[in-house]
Amino acid sequence: DEIEFEPGSIALAPPEAEKVAKLAEALSMRPALALRVPGVVATDADRHALQASRVNAEVEVEIAARGGISKEQLFTEARRDAMEALFTRRFPDESLDGLRAGFVTTTDAGESRFDEPAYVEMMRQRLIEAEAVSNDDLDALARGRASSIIDAVTADTRIDASRVSAGEIGEPARLNEAGWVPLKLEVEASRQAN
């Protein structure tokens, strides 16, 4: 069986939680079997997802530190202001005015138009690329995924926890067609059965 995770996440999506519940049910009926759950990551996809998640969290913290979003301010303005503050701290040698100028175009009527969404997205992408995610972070993600499955299986009190264990972190996985990280479970003979 395979359990799938969204890149950067240890959470079991509802369909995956259902698969794990069915697996736990099957294990409860077969005491001679044990389950080994290896850790897994899709290195590039998980790294990018963790980077994006961290940047998004930093933006939320920055918005909160500025007092949240005022009644007069739109969310997009608050997000832009927070993104600019983060960008300035991360890239102090770059001029925001110079960056903004690259997103101003002239309409047929001769008016200047600022493409704010593209400007904010450019800053976001640069911040994401600069966000550090170590191999230890990826290993922690892999172990967290295994733990999520182990916790869900052993929540079934009919299954002795000694029958479910974490395996080694395997080779990096490839995303499946749905863009999720597959984790292949290993079923083996239970030590209790011996």
Could you characterize what this model shows?
- The chain is α+β, with helices and mostly antiparallel strands and 194 residues long.
- The protein folds into two domains: 2-45 and 153-193, OmpA-like domain (60s Ribosomal Protein L30, Chain: A), CATH 3.30.1330.60; 47-130, no CATH class.
- It is built from six helices and seven strands.
- The protein has helices spanning 14-29, 43-65, 75-90, 96-101, 116-130, 135-154; strands at 2-5, 33-39, 104-106, 112-114, 164-169, 181-184, 186-189.
- The protein has a three-stranded mixed sheet with strand order 5-2-7. Strands 1-6 form a two-stranded antiparallel ribbon.
- A hairpin with a 5-residue loop joins β3 (104-106) and β4.
- The protein is elongated.
- The two termini are 24 Å apart.
- The mean pLDDT is 92.
Integer-rounded radius of gyration? 23 Å
CATH topology tier name of the largest domain: 60s Ribosomal Protein L30, Chain: A
What order do the helices and strands follow?
EHEHHHEEHHEEE
Sheet with most strands: strand arrangement: 5-2-7
CATH superfamily of the largest domain: OmpA-like domain
The CATH architecture classification of the largest domain is: 2-Layer Sandwich
Low-pLDDT parts are none
Helix content: 40-55%
Strand proportion, as a percent range, falls in: 15-25%
Please identify the structural class as seen in this structure.
alpha+beta
User: What's the helix count?
Assistant: 6
* Biggest sheet statistics: 3 strands, mixed
Record the SSE blueprint.
Layout: E1 2-5, H1 14-29, E2 33-39, H2 43-65, H3 75-90, H4 96-101, E3 104-106, E4 112-114, H5 116-130, H6 135-154, E5 164-169, E6 181-184, E7 186-189
Parallel strand pairs: 2-5
Antiparallel strand pairs: 1-6, 2-7, 3-4
